[in-house]
Amino acid sequence: MGARIIDGKAFAAELRGQVADHVARLGAEHGIIPGLAVVLVGEDPASQVYVRSKGRMTVEVGMNSYEHRLEPDTSEADLLALIARLNADPKVHGILVQLPLPGHLDEDLVINAIDPAKDVDGFHVSNVGLLGTGQKSMVPCTPLGCLMMLRAHHGSLSGMEAVVIGRSNIVGKPMAQLLLGDSCTVTIAHSRTRDLPDVVRRADIVVAAVGRPEMVPGDWIKPGATVIDVGINRIDAPENGAGKTRLVGDCHYDSCAEIAGAITPVPGGVGPMTIACLLANTVTACCRANNVPEPEGLTA
Ligand code: GUN
User: Fold this and answer.
1) Which residues of the chain have pLDDT under 70?
2) Can you list the domains of the chain with their CATH numbers?
């Protein structure tokens, strides 16, 4: 295995440390405690795990965490009423509505009801538009975490060929915008892309965000390229005993690590950075709301 491992877990711990320092300073110098409200509708087990760890880490960095758990059959009107209350609450600087929402709720409508200034997910159309036009915005957490790791590893990304596999609103599209903003030559590949292996072989930077376990094999990777694996897929692992499972990324780790220059592992790569960036976005939103200078290094 030749690749250097990009240790997202360590990177995230460092970022959370920076966030905690800024939170302490906001308290000491301005008497402000940043607050993050997380809304979970229903009982999706994976979402419950995420929401719990978001709440725990929010408190660990010294911020206030407000959790709102709603019944699976919550009406759109009730959810929108909650969002309106959170929008108006000066103690709440960030609002995150955990996705996916139950099928009877219109995700676009709900996300666009959040005050864009409190939209720490960066999913509101205003933030999408601001990011796309290179203006100050809230930046989606997972792509922001990937960008931070890429910048830390490479310094400048200018002129590099980047291929993003996956065109989701949560990862693929904003990732491509951020890489473009850093002057990469960017391709967004997806399930209909012709000759996907050849497209990926051009890349100095591969960001895989498709949600298909181990889809990208090592022989798609240009020697020395940097591989950022956003996938978190649970697969059966009978080799570990009956009924056992394990987490894998969208890239086949062992074969990609043979060829790549650097790679993020799963788990321990992009995943921990996502929550750290959520906390960073909450501090950024809090500073903007209070006209306090924004700390360096917490956003794109
Ligand atoms: N579900 C999976 N990822 C995310 C995310 O980044 N934000 C929200 N709100 N929901 C998610």
Assistant:
1) 1
2) 30-122 (3.40.50.10860), 141-271 (3.40.50.720)
